[in-house]
Task: structure prediction
Amino acid sequence: METRRSFLGALLGLGTSAVGALLAIPLARFSLDPLWRTTSQVLWSDVGAAADFASASAPVKVQVAIEQRDGWRTVLSEKPVYIVKARDGRPRVLSAVCPHLGCSVGWNDTKGQFVCPCHNGAFAADGTLLSGPPPRGMDELDARVEGGRLQVRYQYFRQLVPTREVLA
Amino acid sequence: MAGVADWLDRRTGIRGLLHHALDEPIPGGARLAYVFGSGLLFLFLSQVITGVFLALYYVPSADHAHTTVAYIVKEVSSGSFIRSLHVYGSSAIIVVLLLHIGQTILFGSYKRYRELLWLAGCVLFALMLGMAFTGYLLPWDQKAYFATAVGTNILTELPVIGAWVKQFVRGGSDLGTLTISRFFVAHVFLLPAAIFAFVGAHVWLFRKAGAAGPPVPPRPGTTESFYPRQVLMDVAFTAVLILALGLLAWFVPAELGPEANAADTRFLPRPEWYYVPVFQWLKYWPGERALLGIVIIPAVLAALFAALPFIDRGSERRPWRRPFSVGGFAVVMAALVALGVQSHLQDERDPAIARQLTVQHDAVDAFMAEPFEPDVAAGSLRVENAALANPVAAHGKSVFGAQGCDACHGDDARGTDSAPSLVGVAGKYPNGQLRSLLKTPNARMSDGGMQPLDAPDPDVDALVAYLESLK
Result:
């Protein structure tokens, strides 16, 4: 009698645990959802018609509308970027955020240099570091041309380090 | 194994506890009729668990509630399944609750030393109805909004304090974001806390009085302990509940309608099935008689129900010897079913109502088929509003609202069930055609309910500029 009781008890315990584990699967999937979703997805933002930048001789400043997904909402913001031409003529997009302390770098047409107004960091027209406190050149953003439109993936980079590290 | 059990028992007294829980004597032996209490306990725990998980994504505010529920349903893994378990779980609780009450009344097991047990059960019944009512609003879709508008309007029928109570419950004169906050707090904090407390009291009082057993005194020697046969029956019933809820949630996921639009005056509110009889009942008590039908009769019925063990006090428990309690319960249940059927038939027979209900049903299907649309974060630059940098167009948007265009064409002129989207409309009617159409709508527009625009010229210009900005 006693063994039958404990056998039944073990069977019940086992069955309950199995059903419980089964029911926990959707709950786990539900709560872990943000882990296998790139929530702060960086989407491609439109910069303008690629042809518009082909003829420019100096870097062109463009305000890009950035759309970022944050769970159930999107955050829209405008960020300044510079379009410069690579040697092969294809457009490169540089972030205007100074890699030193994050001030907004401006293009100085008379000097033919990018100059950061905060600590006088200077960069060449292609973004390489010329002088001043910044630890590296201006950060290049991923860019592509789709259907004649120049698109950019806007990202932030860690400041004060010599290499370009993407911030999440 | 035994060593671990001994170690635990020394410190917790777990064996005594298990013994106390499992060896409860059941006069007359285990029966399937006794499974409903355990079933309710399981369903309540399931609601607690799924509810806590839903709260991982839900935001109780009028501007995000609907978006976050849509996110759960359309984007989050297993989100639709878990929400469906929660939605159908509430219906299952009502069904099992009625079975539990029916069994108690049929067996007369509210008698003799079980009056407080019955009263605690009555409180739990009321709390569960409160959970169903408060939870219904939270998704903030059309049917949630309008059903709750009707439900809270009933409160005004209360004499003297009615209007005040309605305002208190709504957090203002209209339904809005404060109503969601209030309903959320009740649904997530207050009512569950009260339910936990009363479930504790209910179980305690049940164990104190002991299982009632069958209505006819059982033969001696038929008493069994709760474990194993009653436990097995309870577990089997719970397994049936899990299976039924799981299959339903998997194959017929709960729907979410379009976001609540208070300006949609055509929407016909229909409550969840268990409130349909009440909804039908309200129709018979217009104007002056409302106090009698909506307040006095239900209050008397509820009081009679709660007072049952004090009215039906004899030791007789056989149902056929207690025609008042058993018959009364049967009559009330039959009346509720009849009211429900009547409501359904009335909706089917009136072609105007049937048509509108079809429109609403189609709107739900259409919304469910749309991909998830994230909210645009407050304070972020709105791309569509960037076009409104033109101050004339920006003024046009306020004219759009002031003239009530938004009631049919929607807040952002993106259309509703009642009227189409106006995005790109300027392209269809260039060179002043748009302006003249606004002042004198064509036949198709008039048929759809479009009113001629009567506004000063600068306002018309601004409105046209706004419509032109919609691309």
About this structure: Chain A touches chain B at residues 5, 8-9, 12, 15-16, 19, 23, 25-27, 29-33, 36, 65, 69-78 (CB under 8 Å). The mean pLDDT of chain A is 86. The domain at 44-167 of chain A is CATH 2.102.10.10 (Rieske Iron-sulfur Protein).
